[in-house]
Each structure stands twice: as structure tokens, then as C-alpha cells.
Amino acid sequence: MYFPNPSSHGRFQLAGGDSIRVDESKRPAAFVFKTISDPFVGRLSFLKVLGGVLEPGMELVNARNGKKERLGHIYVMMGKETTDVNSAKAGDIIIVPKLAETKSGDTLSLTGEIAVEPIELPKPLYPVAIEAGEKKDEDKLSTFLARAIENDASLRLERNEETHQMVLTAMGDTQVEMLLNRCKEQTGVVAKLVPVRVPYRETIRKVAEAQGRHKKQTGGAGQFGDCWLRLEPNPGKGYEFIDEIKGGAIPGGFLPAIDKGVQDAMQEGFLAGYPMEDIKCAVYDGSYHPVDSNEMAFKTAARIGFRAACEKANVVLMEPMANMAITVGEDFAGAVMSDMSTRRGRIIGTDSNNAGETVIKVRVPYAEVLSYTKDLRSISRGSGDYTIEIDGYEEAPMDVAKKLAAVYEASKAKE
């Protein structure tokens, strides 16, 4: 069997709008279309030679970062077997080890002026939270996942500081399953998937006042802090702390401790354990003891006062909302819209694209579409696609709030 001449492929599109043809007579250039990390050899870069002839020892420049890379060895691969070669000309596919500053989608050339348009990959939309089966294996798992992200541009990895989870976003459950199996084979680490925590928020709807009083006497000096707090809704403006103390009821040196106590209590949440936001807190009265009062006492008093005020402030749960654009064939549009209504989604509008497909724009609670990749695939027989963007918060229904509050109370009871 004979293959076409490499030049018959056509021209490669460059990032600036120009294009180049595979040509042995041109200056050396190559496109990195894949990168893998071999557990024994290390990093391997797969290159398509676009111009000239590449030889071991040649120094090329990466167009993305301007870094120089030296070609130590050049290999060709047949199955799992690699063969060291002395040169590679335009049209060849080769493997170069240990290119430290180069990743998939980069272009290498003598001057770094050539940059091929990277291969456009679909955006991963299937998030899973992943953790090691045993705590001692967490570092191994992190290292393996970081390497996997380098090898596969269709994966994303994020450490969510708010939910304290490592969230891997992939194309679907099959890709995730293969990754977990590979992790076990290569590192011996058994990783597991846990539910992705949704970053809910809490806030208040009413003005409320309460006293926070902390008094503790132990052998020597005791602890005494007393403050009156007023909480008000502060929509869209975050947290504000206001000093309304008059007549020195509380010395100014203790006010930062009260502020810190309130912020700590807000971080812990009140209704279901989620961070609170958009609250204005004023301290307007209180008392102190010249000996027993200290910063810790007023910090504790502020936490007590804040929670007491929340009892009367009508605390509500806020859920993150997602704006989605779902593209399906006309035959599936009705099923998609019906499914979205069961997820508490609001259809904003519909449109059509150049391919004659229906584009459904919808606003829906993010928690309801975490696994939508699988669901849309089922509804549209694998033909649908969508984009998603987290956009703001809205008050969650009472049944959702009650369910999450019950989970929170149950977890506290186990502590």
C-alpha cells in the first residue's frame, strides 16, 4: 500500500492567518501534536515535521514562549518499539524526549516565528471530584493528575479552595474511568470519586439585633466581652463592618477582634454550613472589664452575637446559577426543554445556527446540571452539545434549603 506524499496534505494554517506547506526545502520547523509521560523514559513529544530536515543536537525555538529546545535524540515509533534515527525530513512523524518547555499545540522552528494554529479540542464539561483512597497517597495522586493534564489537553484540573476538593473536568465518565485505572496501574494509588460540592452561599433578608456576651472565670484573670450587633442585608455589596460605638462603651482596640469574630462566623455559615455574604454588620453598644477583657473574649462574644442575630434575620440559602446554550437537532429540542423544566430551568429563548440546529438558551441552577454531559448524550443520541457559564446566585427553594440544612445538622451531630 502506498501513502500520499506529505505535501498533498495541503497547507497548515498558522495562528496569524497565513499558512505553510510541508516542504523539505524550507527551514526546519515542526508541530507538537501530542505529549505523553512515560514512567520509564519520561516526557515524550510527538512531532510532525513541517519543513526542512531535523537532526539530533539541533536547537529550535518554541513560538509560544520563546524558549530554546535542543533535540537530544530523534526516534520513530512502530507500536511500542522506538528506533533512534539520524534525521527526519518534512512529512515525517517523530518522537523527541525531554523537551522541558514544550507541550501539545506548540510549534518549534529555527527562529520561533512560525506558529501553527493549535488543534481545536472540545471543552471538557463533565466535572468529578477525585481523592486518594488513603491520605498518604494524596501527593502521588496529585503528581499523576498533573502529568495526565500535560498529556491530555481535553482534561482540566482545579483545586477548589472553597470546597476543598480536587475537581477534574473531563469529556465523560469513560475518560475518567480509564484515567483512574491508569493511575492504579502506574502508581499503585487507588483513587475514588466523591460527589462534587456545589458552592452555595447564605445571606439574610431582615434587619436583626442581638447581644453577644462572653464571660468566663478561671482561677486567675478571666475573659469578658460584651457587644451588641445589628445585621442588615447588603445586596451585591459584600460584607461591611460599621463602628457605631459612642462614649467608649467598647475601647477601639477591641473592634478589630469583633470584626474578625463576625467574619469567622460568616465563613462557618448558619443555615447549612455555607459561607455567608452581602451582610452589613454594625456594633453599636457593649461593655468591657478593665482586667478580664481581651481580644479573644470579644472575638468569641462577636461570634455569639452574630449567630443570635441570625436567628431573627431570616437566613436564606443562595444557589449558583448557570447560563447554558444547548445545541441539538430540531427533533430533540422539545425533549431538551421538557428535561430542563424538571431541573428548575428557565428557557430564555431559542435560536438556530448555520447548520440548521436549534440553540436553546436556558438559566438553570448549577447543581441540577453537574452531570448534564451524560444526560444530554442520552437525550440527543450523542449529537447534542452545550456551553455553560456560572453567573450569579439566586435564592434556593425552601425544600432544597431544608434538605441541605438537614445534611449539615447530621454532619455536626457526628462530630
Description:
With 415 residues, this protein is of the alpha+beta class. The protein has 4 domains: 6-109, Elongation Factor Tu (Ef-tu), domain 3 (Beta Barrel); 126-194, 2-Layer Sandwich (Alpha-Beta Plaits), CATH 3.30.70.870; 202-313, Ribosomal Protein S5, domain 2, CATH 3.30.230.10; 317-398, Alpha-Beta Plaits (2-Layer Sandwich), CATH 3.30.70. It is built from 7 helices and 25 strands. The chain has helices at residues 138-151, 173-187, 255-268, 295-310, 330-342, 372-379, 398-414, and strands at residues 11-13, 19-21, 29-38, 42-51, 53-54, 59-62, 68-70, 75-78, 81-84, 88-89, 93-97, 107-109, 126-132, 156-160, 165-170, 191-194, 201-204, 208-216, 223-233, 240-243, 279-287, 315-328, 346-352, 358-365, 385-395. The strands form 7 sheets. It has a 6-stranded antiparallel β-sheet with strand order 7-6-12-3-4-11. Strands 17, 22, 23, 24 and 25 form a 5-stranded antiparallel β-sheet that branches. Strands 14-15-13-16 form a 4-stranded antiparallel β-sheet. Helix 3 (255-268) packs across helix 4. The longest helix is centred in the C-terminal third of the chain and has 17 residues, at 398-414. The model has no long low-confidence stretch (mean pLDDT 91).
